[in-house]
Design a protein that fits this description.
Elements: H1 5-14, E1 16-19, H2 25-40, E2 50-53, E3 61-64, E4 78-80, H3 87-94, H4 99-106, E5 110-118, E6 142-147, E7 158-160, H5 184-198, E8 203-205, E9 212-216, E10 221-223, E11 235-242, E12 253-255, E13 258-260, H6 277-282
Parallel strand pairs: 5-13
Antiparallel strand pairs: 1-9, 2-3, 2-4, 4-5, 5-11, 6-9, 6-11, 7-8, 7-10, 12-13
Bound molecules: 2-oxoglutaric acid and fe (ii) ion (FE2).
């Protein structure tokens, strides 16, 4: 699939591309059913399944999904990198429907480098993804955001500054775009001045289930506060590098136009020892 002139213009002008109704309700329901099933059977999952629980609270921690208490599902969490183990996720995020579009935007071969399943809004402050995962070649990274249910003003919709991808990337004292927390006040000053100078205005995306948003690695974005903490906002975020940037890797193909980085799961801070039958029985 090639993109229309209007779509290329939207991307160049705004730093994102919105694909309305890209996936059907049926296709999305399958993913939601998969997540429900994983929660139900998580104790049997291996150490490839890693989750951040109680995010943005004092109790925030990264654990194996097998060890997550059920109560962690009622608050914001990030289920990491399901693409590593689940073909259903790979097909959705870099399968034959989406991969050609990612390829057209990246002008190189897309390779998934991480994925995050959210059940609630992320409430993440405005940021550039290049704070965390700059591509070896600048601008050879994009993210996709798939609405697994409708976003509303109450459930912490995604928010971003159209056109912010044109702001020259802020260089921290390390000489890179990777965030140095102590330098955030200086960053904030820089970015506020740039936003003001360019007259940029934040927009909030009331996405509908099945919509897909693709953003440029330099789009300034975040998750707005959840006004009603009982309301979920299921979504799937995926970040992509390009095969060309990793010539030594041989990433497995998902379709003719897309691949994924086969790598270890995110490290968990403690040693994982699945309980043996004795411990399970007695403690
Ligand atoms: O879904 C959100 O609220 C934002 C997530 C995000 O910015 C990211 O994963 O890079
Ligand atoms: Fe982000």
């Amino acid at each position: 699939m090639s993109l229309s002139k209007e779509q290329h213009k939207e991307w160049d002008d705004n730093g994102y591309l919105l694909l309305k109704n890209f996936y059907s309700a049926d296709e999305i329901d399958k993913i939601n059913i998969l997540i429900d099933g994983l929660w139900k059977n998580r104790k049997k999952l291996d150490s490839q399944y890693v989750i951040d629980i109680f995010v943005e609270t004092e109790q925030e921690r990264r654990v194996y999904f097998a060890d997550a208490p059920l109560a962690a599902r009622d608050q914001p969490y990030k289920l990491n990198d399901l693409y590593l183990s689940r073909d259903e996720i790979r097909q959705l995020v870099v399968g034959e429907r989406l991969a050609p579009i990612l390829k057209a935007l990246l002008q190189d071969f897309p390779m998934v480098c991480n994925s995050l399943n959210f059940e609630f809004g992320s409430q993440q402050d405005y940021h550039f993804d290049t704070f965390y995962m700059p591509s070896p070649t600048p601008n050879k990274m994009v993210a996709s955001w798939i609405a697994l249910e409708n976003a509303t003003p109450e459930n912490g919709p995604l928010s971003y500054y159209p056109g912010s991808h044109k702001i020259p990337p802020y260089q921290f004292s390390s000489g890179s775009t990777i965030v140095v927390n102590d330098e955030m006040p200086a960053f904030r000053e820089y970015i506020d001045a740039e936003i003001e100078k360019r007259g940029l205005q934040a927009e909030t995306l009331l996405a509908e289930k099945g919509d897909v948003l693709i953003w440029h690695s330099q789009l300034f974005h975040g998750g707005s506060p959840i006004k009603d903490k009982t309301k979920t906002r299921k979504s799937l975020v995926t970040h992509y590098f390009t095969n060309e940037d990793f010539p030594d890797l041989e990433p497995p193909l998902v379709c003719e136009h897309g691949s994924y980085m086969a790598r270890a799961a995110q490290p968990v801070a403690y040693e994982y020892k699945p309980k043996n039958w004795l411990q399970r029985a007695f403690g």
